[in-house]
Amino acid sequence: EAKRNDKHGWRAYDPSMTDQRTRESILADLLEHAVDAGQLSVHYQPIVDLASGRTVGVEALARWQHPDYGFVPPSEFVPIAERSSLIHTIGMHVLTEAATQVRAWQTRQHADPLHLSVNLSPRQLLKPGIVADVVAVLERTGLSPAHLTLEITETAIVDTERAAPILAEFRALGIRIAIDDFGTGYSSLQYLLGLPIDGLKIDRAFVTQLDSTTQGAAVAEAVVRLGQILGLDTVAEGIESPAQVAELQLLGCTSGQGYLFSRPRPAAEIEEGLNLIPPQTVR
Ligand code: C2E
Ligand code: MG
Ligand code: MG
Ligand code: MG
């Protein structure tokens, strides 16, 4: 069984394989076929308005299930994809599937339309034609630009001179921009906050420390204050306890996501939390 070759000619997964470069290059090769082979899917994590407790949006998160390797987490395959143009193929696939799904949910909603957040990697942001590519997906799927947030990490905008005009183009179209994992990068606040952005996502590392008396709690508080002063939305990542929610509410943090509300799940499994009109009553 361990000697069996799969259809790409690679030896099947051997748990004793410890050479990281070998695993990486194997995964890089397998990843090339992942989209076409239908191995990539999208999970959705609800984003909850902390004042009302209502789900106001979802973050789309890529999932890769390989027949031999099993589940490969995005923390492993996204950096591999990021080293080649594959990240663009994967990113566009996630955006297309998620936009289609959220648009379908919107047609079954009573009230405010659900919002979609999608991660855009540094390499994607700087890809020539990225704005037109995103717009084409919105046109094809019918999702309004006003219902899309692109999450961009600080590392993506280290090259501010190149990033700023692209971000400005997105915003001119009505697409929102949020800085992901805020507080974990090394960027200077001065240039970061000079950028055309709409929101800050407080990294889980700081949210985790909220119910203790460590410096992490101070960072979360500082980010919320900064957001308030600059008129930016603040979204807390990785909320796992009611105590963290209480603290974030006190601070005035706009919204949050985390296992306390829901893990990222396939579309069908998060639907019941979305308060939708049942499909059979939709005409
Ligand atoms: P991220 O954008 O910061 O996404 C949030 C991550 O935190 C997700 O990990 C999510 O599952 C996890 N998370 C949310 N709530 C909790 C919690 O309460 N506790 C804990 N322990 N974790 C929580 P995930 O899905 O493994 O994704 C990891 C990273 O991979 C993402 O971080 C993002 O940077 C990247 N990624 C995922 N999908 C895509 C994609 O489609 N495109 C790009 N470019 N990057 C992606
Ligand atoms: Mg994100
Ligand atoms: Mg994040
Ligand atoms: Mg994070």
UniProtKB/TrEMBL annotation:
It comes from Catenuloplanes indicus. Signal peptide: none annotated. GO terms for molecular function: cyclic-guanylate-specific phosphodiesterase activity. Keywords: Membrane, Transmembrane, Transmembrane helix. This is Diguanylate cyclase (GGDEF)-like protein. The chain holds residues 457 to 739 of 739 of the full protein. Residues 24-278 form the EAL domain. It comes from the Bacteria.
